[in-house]
Specification:
The chain is globular. It has 2 domains: 126 residues, Leucine Dehydrogenase, chain A, domain 1 (Rossmann fold, 3-Layer(aba) Sandwich), CATH 3.40.50.10860; 136 residues, Rossmann fold. The chain is an alpha/beta fold and 272 residues long. The two termini are 31 Å apart. The chain is built from 9 helices and 12 strands. The protein binds NADP nicotinamide-adenine-dinucleotide phosphate.
Length: 272
């Protein structure tokens, strides 16, 4: 039996167990994925304890994504981002598959980010991962954030890998006609949060690609409005599934069954 899990505090409702267990079952693997609530002060014991017990992989969620870097070696873009969401436990190597998941969601919708101007709204964990990967892949990134100091800091960090500037959140209308891709990395539009657009509607020209990282509901206010304006849209659920799929590939070396994982995620979210 191979063991996998997700650690967070609080762990809350995660769809990762449903996604991975469905993939294991589909491929006939003798493996199980469990969730564990781990307090910040127990993080070291959890990581080394998992290694001693022979675990193959962990996903890591809030609030451990940065703290875990004390115990694992970051690989690839995780090094620059400074956050890890997937650990290869035997090797104690950490990856940021959130970044990869976002890029793959765009690519699978036929969007090539190289040479494009991308507006990333939000400078939290998701915004940070996305800003780094897009700049690394040759996009010019414009970061905006409600709290200016946090956005300025992110733009400065991202400039280490590519082109990135900050633009004030209350002056986004000025960017009309200058943006190819808009990414919402705030909780605006999420079930239980404020239902308002994260950007002024005036930015939604029909040639702009709109990617909402929010996946519950699937069709957010931003996605609905963008569709009405004729924009190409990219769904948050695809980022979620692709980040899980990449973790699966890292841990097992196998091709992840994307459709099975997506179906399991939608069902765990009560969205199908
Ligand atoms: N599809 C996926 O796989 C995936 C993965 C991760 C996250 N997400 C989505 O991304 C969202 C952000 O996640 P996170 O982990 O980055 O969260 P986080 O670290 O808490 O960051 C939240 C970001 O949203 C901004 N924000 C919060 N409330 C706002 C409001 N009322 N108006 C404007 N900006 C606001 C914050 O700005 P301040 O700095 O001013 O507080 C911050 O930039 C989540 O809600 C989730 O829906 C999706």
């Amino acid at each position: 039996m191979q063991y996998f899990g997700i650690i967070g505090y609080p762990i809350g409702h995660s769809v990762s167990p449903a996604m991975h267990n469905a993939a294991f079952k589909h491929l006939g693997l003798e493996a199980i994925y469990l969730k564990f609530e781990v307090k910040p002060e127990d993080l070291r014991d959890a990581i080394f304890g998992a290694k001693a017990l022979g675990f193959k992989g962990f996903n890591v969620t809030i609030p451990h994504k940065e703290a875990v870097l004390e115990f694992v070696r970051p690989v690839g873009i995780a090094k620059q981002i400074g956050a890890v969401n997937t650990i290869d436990i035997p090797k104690l190597e950490g990856y940021n598959t959130d970044a990869y998941g976002a890029l793959k969601a765009l690519e699978s919708a036929g969007v090539d980010v190289e040479g494009k101007v991308a507006l990333v709204v939000g400078a939290g964990g998701a915004g940070r991962a996305i800003a780094f990967i897009l700049a690394d892949k040759g996009a010019t990134v414009i970061v905006t954030n409600r709290t200016e100091s946090r956005g300025l800091r992110l733009a400065e960090d991202v400039r280490k890998v590519g082109e990135c500037i900050f633009h004030p959140y209350n002056r986004l209308g000025e960017l009309k006609g200058r943006i190819d891709i808009i990414i919402n990395a705030t909780p605006l539009g999420m079930k239980g949060f404020e239902q308002k657009l994260p950007i002024p509607e005036i930015l939604l020209d029909r040639n702009v690609v709109v990617f909402d990282t929010v996946y519950n509901p699937l069709e957010t206010l931003l996605i609905k409005t963008a569709k009405k304006k004729g924009c190409k849209v990219v769904y948050g659920i695809d980022m979620l599934v692709y980040q899980g799929a990449e973790a699966f590939r890292i841990w097992t070396g196998l091709e992840p069954p994307i459709d099975i994982m997506k179906e399991a995620a939608l069902s765990a979210l009560g969205l199908q």
